[in-house]
Specification:
By secondary structure, this protein is mainly β. It has one domain. It contains three helices and 15 strands. A hairpin with a 7-residue loop joins strand 3 and strand 4.
């Protein structure tokens, strides 16, 4: 379960993404006019996975550009810099409860990769999110649902020594024994296309993460996981 705080963040998540996402090679959207406040990104939906250690926040936000293109943005939230990941830092923010948080592109964070691979390979879903109100847990109604195609009990390979590559609206994350391909621009790539991007052959197993969210009831392919 993901414990959320009723707290403020400065800058906000969407402000961080509004500055960072348009600089990425997978971004598709209209050029931003100087001083135009209504042309930024809009948050559409979000889902979280658990970090078993309870130290890193793991969230994926789906945003829409001014012309309606939907983009998938995995993020991690840390209480200290991730060594060797300066190139993947989205920014820092002040959380009114937790203090300074370092926000990273999740695809470069081993905690995100392990959480995603676990959900996909074992047929898992997003974490249940909750607040504490007057000493009692209050579950937040989700605005999205994701599910992996794998089976419970499937072994999950170690996810470490990550390399990250960008390929035409997709991000390829390669670890020692697993490869993850993430659809950045949604609605363009089915599971077969993502697997092909990841170098799928008959020697690899492939499992898929699909999702639905408010206003998008048809299951959408979000990512695939290839194992040897």
């Amino acid at each position: 379960m993901a414990h959320l705080h009723r707290a403020g963040m400065s800058p906000s998540k969407i402000d961080l993404l509004d500055a960072w996402v348009p600089t990425q090679p997978w971004f598709e959207g209209p050029p931003r006019s100087e001083g135009a406040d209504d042309e930024g990104l809009r948050s559409v939906a979000a889902f979280r996975f658990d970090d078993p250690a309870g130290e890193v926040g793991v969230e994926t936000i789906i945003v829409a550009t001014a012309d309606g293109v939907q983009l998938q943005v995995p993020l991690t939230y840390r209480d200290a810099p991730l060594p060797g990941a300066d190139a993947h830092l989205v920014g820092t923010t002040e959380h009114s409860v937790l203090g300074t948080r370092w926000v990273y592109d999740g695809t470069a964070d081993p905690v995100w990769a392990a959480a995603l691979a676990t959900a996909v390979l074992t047929g898992g879903t997003q974490a249940e999110a909750w607040f504490e109100v007057d000493g009692e847990r209050q579950v937040r109604e989700p605005n999205s649902t994701v599910v992996g195609s794998g089976s419970p009990g499937t072994p999950v390979p170690d996810v470490d020594r990550l390399t990250v590559d960008q390929v035409e609206g997709r991000t390829v994350v390669t670890g020692a024994a697993v490869r993850i391909v993430v659809a950045r621009v949604l609605g363009r790539h089915d599971a077969g296309a993502l697997a092909s991007t990841g170098g799928h052959t008959g020697d690899h197993g492939v499992e898929v993460l699909t999702g639905t969210w408010t206003g998008h009831d048809q299951p959408e392919t979000l990512a695939v996981v290839l194992t040897a």
